[in-house]
Amino acid sequence: MARISIIDRADMNAEQARVYDAAKQSTGVVGGPYYAYIRLPALFEACQNLRNCLGSGPLSDREQQIVNLAVARHYNAHYPWFAQVRRSLAVGIGQPIIDAINARKAPSLADAREQTCWVVARELLASNSLSDATYAAAEKALGLESLVALVATTGSFSTTCLTANTFAIDPPPDNPTPLAA
């Protein structure tokens, strides 16, 4: 059960309603950690803008999802995991890859960029930085712009997961791929 109440659209103040309506019209994403963010409309809007910026950046949808799955698994974030599994399946990431990440095992990724995204996200989460060797390999495989986007995606989605965990925002009970214990 969530630690905070979910504010109904009818009970929002004018600024909350403005950013909620804008998000609903553009991405449709207004649940999960956004239940907390709506209390600070400027934060809600900034998170939406960052999400849109990274979503249209140099990483492919699949690369973004590999990162998001790694981050959600790292933080044991149930709602973000639920949402990212659904999105990952929609962009063609197979259930065996999702299951491996859920089991805290390295997924079998044939694409070199996707593999690099996995390695970089995991190292960032484990050590809060990258070794010189990982940095050099990532810059060579991805290019500097994609590496910047990868680091930003890891950090941004960490915020999402920490928010969902702190405010106990849970997925629906019919979650088809719950986090493993």
Secondary structure layout plus pairing:
Layout: H1 14-26, H2 34-37, H3 41-55, H4 61-74, H5 78-90, H6 95-102, H7 112-127, H8 132-142, H9 144-166
Helix pairs in contact: 1-3, 3-9, 4-5, 4-7, 4-9, 7-8, 8-9
What's the short version?
The chain is mainly α and about 180 residues long. The protein contains 9 helices and no strands. The radius of gyration is 17 Å and the shape is globular.
How would you explain this protein's 3D organization?
The protein has 181 residues and is mainly α. The chain folds into two domains: 9-55, no CATH class; 61-157, AhpD-like, CATH 1.20.1290.10. Helices cover 65% and strands 0% of the residues. The protein is built from nine helices and no strands. The protein is globular, with a radius of gyration of 17 Å. The model has no long low-confidence stretch (mean pLDDT 95).
Judging by the overall fold, what is the CATH architecture of the largest domain?
Answer: Up-down Bundle
Number of helices: 9
Give the number of domains.
2
The name CATH uses for the topology of the largest domain is AhpD-like
Assign the structural class, choosing from mainly alpha, mainly beta, alpha/beta, alpha+beta, or little secondary structure: mainly alpha
CATH H-level homologous superfamily name of the largest domain: AhpD-like
So what's the overall shape? globular
In terms of per-residue confidence, which ranges show pLDDT below 50 for 5 or more consecutive residues?
none
Radius of gyration from the alpha-carbon trace, in angstroms: 17 Å
Strand content: under 5%
Which range best describes the helical content: under 10%, 10-25%, 25-40%, 40-55%, 55-70% or over 70%?
A: 55-70%
**Biggest sheet overview:** none
Mean pLDDT: 95
Order of helices and strands: HHHHHHHHH
**End-to-end distance:** 19 Å
